[in-house]
Amino acid sequence: MQVDEYKGYLLYGHSIEQPTGYAASGTVMRDGRVVESSGILEIFAVDEEALAAGLAWAREWVDGHA
């Protein structure tokens, strides 16, 4: 899991190991509560790519909703 603070939100990028690679997902939190989560975004061959994709999704969500 990778964490970033962005515009007052805590963003989490997740990488979930799968038989075919790493599933990316993202979570947006504010004031200790989950605001939104992505579900599985895509499968990547590399763990770090999945983490980055999850964080990118979370930043885009904040930009579109905050």
Automatic annotation (TrEMBL):
It comes from the Bacteria. This is Uncharacterized protein.
